[in-house]
Write a structure and sequence with these properties.
single chain; Rossmann fold; N-(1-d-carboxylethyl)-l-norvaline Dehydrogenase, domain 2; 2 domains; six-stranded parallel β-sheet; 13 helices
Length: about 300
């Protein structure tokens, strides 16, 4: 690389990608960004441009041109294909020996598909979904779980460390996405349990904040309890990870579970509870809104 962090491209400036790309720019990387909504990219450049080395590209291919590493963080499998593949896709602009890193939470099958396309072009590939939400992205506190080769992981680790508190290579291509499925399965169960606990405390006439203060010091403690119980208790859900996106993630996990013959009864049930929340108009509410359907 030409400097400590080198030349990178970042494709997708949503609530996660925007600050992730920003951290790279603030730490001195030469960052070229692409976003489907150009106004979002223009605002990013205004917020993070330094020394005239950051730029906006008109297509993913242009963004990837001359980049040592290309990052993607978009919505779903089809979104990834639209920015990675094809004549104007990122891969078309990448040189042999560079690395494509997909931070999107997507399917294992897509990871294998992209890895094959990258291999044909002499490009490395890592599936690298993240956990930690918008706050984790903004505070450089994400967890990144990766699938791919050790060599490719070592090449990008210094870049990942700019916005992550923990990174780990979980196995071959696809292992990162499988690990993220485990993450979402666990979160779904914890949130449903927390929703029922808060609901029970309210119906029983207890002070929810006092209850949480006590039980969060014991075995019931969780990130969700520490960060969501108080807002759940007052019915605030206009922030955080949206129900629509959680249903997308749980759908991937459930589909994969069927393929692997892994039994996920709780996950299937909570997925239907989230469908209830969507039917209540809460598709964009935070995932802690499971409480709303109980009350």
């Amino acid at each position: 690389m030409s400097n400590e962090l080198g030349r990178v491209a970042f494709i997708g400036l949503g609530v996660m990608g925007y600050p992730m790309a920003g951290h790279l720019a603030k730490q001195g990387a030469e960052v070229t960004v692409y976003n489907r909504t150009s106004a979002r990219a223009e605002q990013w450049l205004q917020d993070y441009k330094h020394d005239d080395v950051c730029a906006i590209a008109a297509t993913p291919r242009q963004a990837a041109d001359a980049a040592d590493v290309v990052f993607m963080c978009v919505g779903n499998d089809d979104d990834v294909r639209s920015v990675a593949l094809g004549e104007d896709g990122a891969l078309a602009g990448m040189r042999a020996g560079t690395v494509l890193v997909d931070h999107t939470t997507a399917s294992q099958q897509l990871a294998v598909e992209l890895a094959s396309a990258c291999a044909a072009a002499g490009v490395g590939f890592l599936d690298a979904p993240v956990s930690g939400g918008q706050a984790g992205a903004e505070n450089a506190g994400l967890t990144v779980m990766l699938g791919g080769s050790e060599a490719d992981y070592q090449r990008v680790e210094v870049l990942l460390d700019v916005y992550a508190k923990k990174t780990a290579l979980m196995g071959p291509v696809g292992a990162g996405q499988l690990t993220k499925m485990v993450n979402q399965i666990c979160i779904a169960g914890v949130l449903q349990g927390l929703a029922e606990g808060v609901h029970f405390a309210q119906v029983a006439g207890l002070d929810v904040d006092a209850v949480v203060d006590v039980i969060s010091q014991g075995a019931a403690q969780s990130w969700q309890m520490n960060n969501r119980a108080a807002t759940m208790a007052v019915g605030e859900y206009d922030f955080g990870f949206a129900v629509d996106w959680m249903r997308k993630d749980l759908g991937i996990a459930l589909d994969t579970g069927r393929e692997l013959n892994a039994r996920l009864p709780m996950t299937a049930l909570v997925d239907q509870f989230y469908a209830d929340v969507q039917n209540m108009g809460g598709g964009r509410w935070d995932t802690s809104s499971l409480l709303r359907r109980l009350s």
